[in-house]
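User: Hi! Is it possible to get a structure for several chains at once, not just one? Here's what I have:
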Amino acid sequence: IWLCNVPFFTVPLARAHGKSFAHRSDLRQAKRILVKLGSAVVTRGDECGLALGRLASIVEQVAMLQNQGREMMIVTSGAVAFGKQRLRHEILLSQSVRQALHSGQNQLKDMSLPVLEARACAAAGQSGLMALYEAMFTQYSTCTAQILVTNLDFHDDQKRRNLNSTLHELLRMNIVPIINTNDAVVPPPEPNSDLQGVNVISIKDNDSLAARLAVEMRADLLIALSDVEGLYDSPPGSDDAKLLDTFYPGDQHSITYGTKSRVGIGGMEAKVKAALWALQGGTSVVIANGTHPKVTGHVITDIVEGKKVGTFFSEVKPAGPTVEQQTEMARSAGRTLASLEPEQRSEIICALADLLTERKDEILSANKKDMEHAVSRLSPAMLKRLSLSSSKLNSLSIGLRQIAVSSQDSVGRVLRRTRVANNLELEQITVPIGVLLVIFESRPDCLPQVSALAIASGNALLLKGGKEAANTNRILHELAQEALSIHGVKDAIQLVSTREEVEDLCRLEKMIDLIIPRGSSQLVRDIQRAAKGIPVLGHSEGICHVYVDHEASVDKAIKIIRDSKCDYPAACNAMETLLVHRELLRTPLFDQIIDMLRTEHVKIHAGPKFASYLTFSPSEVKSLRTEYGDLECCIEVVDSMTEAVDHIHKYGSSHTDVIVTENEDTAEQFLQQLDSACVFWNASSRFADGYRFGLGAEVGISTARIHARGPVGLDGLLTTKWVLRGEGHTAADFSEQGSMTYLHENLPVMTRNFA
Amino acid sequence: IWLCNVPFFTVPLARAHGKSFAHRSDLRQAKRILVKLGSAVVTRGDECGLALGRLASIVEQVAMLQNQGREMMIVTSGAVAFGKQRLRHEILLSQSVRQALHSGQNQLKDMSLPVLEARACAAAGQSGLMALYEAMFTQYSTCTAQILVTNLDFHDDQKRRNLNSTLHELLRMNIVPIINTNDAVVPPPEPNSDLQGVNVISIKDNDSLAARLAVEMRADLLIALSDVEGLYDSPPGSDDAKLLDTFYPGDQHSITYGTKSRVGIGGMEAKVKAALWALQGGTSVVIANGTHPKVTGHVITDIVEGKKVGTFFSEVKPAGPTVEQQTEMARSAGRTLASLEPEQRSEIICALADLLTERKDEILSANKKDMEHAVSRLSPAMLKRLSLSSSKLNSLSIGLRQIAVSSQDSVGRVLRRTRVANNLELEQITVPIGVLLVIFESRPDCLPQVSALAIASGNALLLKGGKEAANTNRILHELAQEALSIHGVKDAIQLVSTREEVEDLCRLEKMIDLIIPRGSSQLVRDIQRAAKGIPVLGHSEGICHVYVDHEASVDKAIKIIRDSKCDYPAACNAMETLLVHRELLRTPLFDQIIDMLRTEHVKIHAGPKFASYLTFSPSEVKSLRTEYGDLECCIEVVDSMTEAVDHIHKYGSSHTDVIVTENEDTAEQFLQQLDSACVFWNASSRFADGYRFGLGAEVGISTARIHARGPVGLDGLLTTKWVLRGEGHTAADFSEQGSMTYLHENLPVMTRNFA
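Assistant: Yes, the chains can be modeled jointly so their relative placement is included. Here is the combined structure:
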C-alpha cells in the first residue's frame, strides 16, 4: 500500500521497450537475462545435503551464458539463511572452543541454539554469500559485483538513475551484478499487503525486486527459480492439477491458487503478479524449479534453449491448440474411431487414397515449395526422399487400398475364448494401443502411409514431421483429416507444429502410449534416450550378417551377398558383416565373392581372424559391431555354423541374419538357434520389410524382445483386452465353501480368414 | 627407481591393520575414508561448462559423510590447471586492462596466451584451489586444512611421523585435511619409471600418494575418482571391453592395458598398481568416474552405500559366480532349453512338481528356519505369506503339472505363414523372450511357479528373492536346478545372491530382457524407476471400479460389490471406487449397498458429487485416484454409463473395471468403450487373475499398452521371430527389371488344439 502512489511504479513508464518474446523458441535470442534465485534454491538442501552443488551449477550456467556474450544479472536470496548458519556456528565456537576442538565428536550439532535476529543474520550472511559467489565465478574468470538495494532506492529518482547507470556500467564491463535486498537496514517484509493492484508492484520480496529490475534494465528474459515446478491450473497435488507450459495474461481467471503457499513471502500468486507485471513491461518471464536434482544441471540453459521447463509467460496466444490439447483431442476422437465398424475405417482409408490422386496438383505444388526451399540445403539423397511425384502418389494410393482391405480384420478380433464357469465367459480381443506419436524426417510419403495404418488399427495419431517438408505435410494432413471427417473423427490425426521440440514431446508420458521414430539411427537413439516412460518401437542399429556355409551354392551365395550389400547399402537390412566358413578360403567361390564385391566397389574390412589368414589383408576392422550403411563391409572367418551363430549373438543387433547353404539340417539349426528378429535361409537380408513380408505396410522394424518384433504392420499397433461376461459371479462362489467350480473350457474362435 | 630401496615403502610395515573389506556392502562400515580427486574431476569441464558443480557436489558428499561421524580426507589434484587459468587471466589483464574493461566484448578469449611454467602455475593455483575448497566446506560448517607434501617427506622418518601425527590431530578435530603434492618445489614427475615392482610404490603421482597416505593413515577405504568408469578387462572402447565390478589381485593377468592412457601420469596400470598396493596394506579401494554428469551427484555416497559404482578391489574372491556371470550362464543354458522338444520341457516341469512333494521335509525344514528368524520381525500377514505347508506344496505341485500340459504348445508355434513368392516361404513363430529377471518379496511359493512358467516358455530366469525367505528359496532353487539337470540345462535358472542390490540388477541393460517384479506397488514403482532400458512387466496401481447402472439387478450388485471389495481388500484387483447411477440414489438398492458395506466394516469416502447430494455425507475423498488396499472405498455418483466410462478413463489405472446392469446394450457399450486391460459385465473384479482366467498361472497383471496386457501367463513370456526360406531369392529379382513377382499368399497354420 505504502508504495502504490509512487508514479514510478505504474506500468506506462516501464513499458518502454515492450518486446517480450512470443514463443519459447525465441528465448534463444535473449541477450540480457536476469536470473532470480529464491532462498530455497540458494540454501535449502536436497537429498544429498545442502544446496552448494545446485548453486555451483547455476553459477556454471550463468557464466557459460555470459561467455556466449549475453548480459547476465542475478537477484539472489539466501543471506538470512547463510547468516543463521554462520552466526550459530560462531556463537557456539566462542562459547566452547576447547570442548569443540578436542571432543573428537560432532558435539556442535547437539548444542542448543540461541535465537537469532533476522537482520543480524542477513548482515552476517551477506558477506559469506558474496564470497561464495565470487569464489565460484572466479573459476570461470568471471567478475562479480555486489549490489544491495532497499525499496527507498526506487523512490528517489536520483538514486534510481544511479542504480541504473551502475548496472549498465557493470554489464558493459562483462561483470555479473549480484543483487540482493539490503535486509540489514530495511524492516522485515510484511506479507502480500500491497499486491492488490495489478499495475503496481512493490519490491518487498525478491520476486517483485527481480521483476522491477528486469523491466528497469530492459532485460529480455527474467528466469525466476524457486522450489515449485511452475504455475499449475489448480493447487498442486489435487487430482486435476496440471502444470501450465505457457501462461497468457488473459488466462488469469482460470487459475485457482492454493490457500497456503510453500514458497515464502507472497507465494505463487505474488510470483504470478510480478511475472505479469514484468511481461507488461516487455520482459519475458519463466518461472521454474531450481531445486529439483533432476533439472539442477541445466535449468537455466534449458530455458534459454527454448525447452519446456517451468511456465513461460507470453503475451501472444498462438492460434492453434497446444500439443497437449492436440493429444487430448486425438485420444478422444481416436476412441470414436476405434468404435466404428471395420468397414467405416476402411472407407476412410479409401477416401484418403482417392484424395491422394484427386488432389495431386495441390500436393505436388506444396511439395515443389518445399523442394525449392530445400534444394540448396539438403544433399541429393535427402532431396530425393523429400520429393513427391505423380507416380509416387499413385503407388501410395494403391498401398493405402491394401491397408484398407487388411483393416477389416484388425480391431475387435477375438483371440481367445474361455468358458470360465457356467454362464461366465471370457474373451481376449484386439484393441488399439491408444495414442501413437510418429516422428519422421524428410519423407512426406510416410504421412499418409502411417495415417492409414493408424486408422486401420483404430489408433489416435500425432505426427511430427521435419521442417523441410512442412508444406507437403500440411496438405497431406489436411487430406487425412478430410477423409476422417466422413465419419466424424477428424481430430484423430493431429499434425504437431514444427516448433515443438522432439524432446518435449517424448516427455508427455501420461498422454502418449507409443512412440515410433522413422528416420536415421541417430534420431532413434535420441528418442530412445529422451523417452522416459513411453515405449519406443524401432531399432537403432541394423548390423545384419550373411553367413556362407561350406556347403553353400556358388550362385546363391553371390546373388544373395550382392543383393544384401548393394541393393540399398544405406538400408537397415543391408548386410554389414559377411561370415565365411573357413573351408571356403582359397576356393573359387571365395575368389568369386571377392571379385564381385570389388566389381561393385564395396570396400572390404577384415575381421581379426580373416586378417590372420592373409599375407596382405585389407585394413583390419576397428570394431566387429560396425554399421557401415554404405558400400563397405567386414569379412570374418568362422570355423562352423555354430561359431557363426555365436559371432552373430555377440556382435549382431538381432535385426536380420542370413545363412547360405544347401544343407537343410545346417540351415534349420541356424534358423532355430539364432536369436534375431528375422532369420533367413538362402534369401537376401533385404527381404526384412513389411511390404515384402506381405504385411501391406510397416511402421518400422523392431529389434525389441517384447511386443512387436521384426517388420511391424497392423498387428504391432494393436494390443488386447479381456472381456468377461457373467451373471453376478463372485470369486467367493469358487472358494472351498462356494457352490461353483472352474471349467476353463477353451471355446472355438473365428480364426483369420485366409481365403 | 630412486625410491625403491627406502625400506619404509615395502609392504610388511604398511600391512599393519590389514582389514580391507570383502564385499561392497561392507563399505557401509568404512569409518576413515580417503577420497582422491584426479585433475579431470577438479578442473575438466563437462557439457555445461567447467567442473565447479561437480566439485561442489563432491564437497557436499564429503561433508555429509563427515557429519555422519566418518573421518574424511581428500587428496586433490588440479592446482596446476587452476593456476594456468588464473595466471593467463592475470597476465592478460595486466597487459591490457583498459581495452578489456572498456571493450564490452569478451576479447580476453581471443588473445594469444603466453607459455606458462607448470611449477609457477601450481604455486599460483594452490591458493585459489584451497580458497575454493574452504568457501565450499564452510557452507557445511566444516573446517579444512591444507597439507602439501613432497616425496622427501616420506623419506625422513621424523617428517613422516610429523605428517602422520598432524593428520591424526586434524581428524580428531573434525577437520578435513586436503592434501596435495607440493608441485612448486618438486621436479615435475617422470612417467611411470619406478612402478615395476609391485611391493614398492612411489608418490610421484597422486594415485600413489593417495594409496601411500591411505595405508599410512590406516584408512578403511580409498576412493580414487578420475574420468574413467573403472577398470576394464580390455582397453575401453574395444568390442569386448567389460567394466570389472570387482577386481581380485589374482586376476591381474586377465587384464589387457591399452597402449595409451587418457588419465594423466601413469594411466590405468599405475592406478591399478597403487590400488593393489593399498589393498595389500589393508585399505579397500574403489576406482570410479568422478566426472560423468550422471553420477556427479552421488558417486562417493553411492560407493559408501555399497552400490555398484566403478571397480571395487577385494582380496576375498567369493565362492560363487558374479551376477553377470550368472546371467551369461543362464542365457546360454536358456538357449539350449529353448531348443529342447516341448515334451522335454514338460518333463522338467513334472520332475520339479515331483520334487516338491518328494522333498517336502527338506523344504519345510528350510522354511521353518526362515519362519523362526522372521517371527519377531514381520507382520502376521507377511508371516503367512512366508510360510509353506504340506498342502501348499501339494497344490503348488498340481499347478505345475497344469503348466507342464500347456507348455506343449508354446515355443515354436507357427502364428502366420505366407508364400511370399514361388519357393520363398515366410513363417512367424513364437520364441522365448530371453533372460527374465523376477524380483519377488516374501512368498517363496512364487519361485517354483515362476520357474515352471520360464521353463515352459523356454526362457532363462534370474530369481531375486527377499532375505526373509533365503533358506526356503535356496532349497527350492536347488530342486529347480535338479529338475533342469534331466536335460542338461541346470544353469537356465539362477538364484541371485541376497547381497545384490535390486537397483544394480536393474542396470544390467544389455543382459536382461524383461523384469517382472512381484510384490508391493512400491517395489514395482521402485523398479520401474530404476530399470532404464529394460522393460518392466506389471502394474504399479490397481484402481478398479464397479459401476452400478440404474438397470442393475439388486442381488448381483450386492454380491459383486461385496466380493470386489471384501474378498481380499489388499489385492490389486479389489474395488477402490464404486460408481453409482444417479437414479439409484435414495432407492432401496442403494440403501442395501450401504448397509452391506457397513456390515462388512468398509469405511466409505464420498466423491465430490456424491457428497453434494447428501446432507450428512461421509468424509470427502482427498483424491479420486486413491488405491486404499483395505476395507475402504470411495463412492461417487454418475449421471450415465458414459459418464462412468469418462470417470474411469480419468481417474482409473486401466486395470479392471466392472459394470453391473441387466441392459445388454448398455453393458456391451461399456465393454467396448472402456480402455482397461480387463472389463467385466456382472462379474466381480476379483476374477482378474491368471489362474481364474484359465491361463494356468500368471507372472503378474500388466497395465501396459504394448506387449502382454492383463493377467500374463505363458503367452506373455513369448515373442516371435520371422523365418524366411528361399532358394537364393534377392530383392532385385522383384524390381521392375526383375523376373519375379510377390504372391503374398496366406498359407494355413495349425491353430491351437482346443479339443
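Confidence is low (pLDDT under 50) at residues 1-16, 189-202, 259-266 of chain A. Residues 118-138 of chain A form the longest helix (21 residues).

User: Great, thank you!
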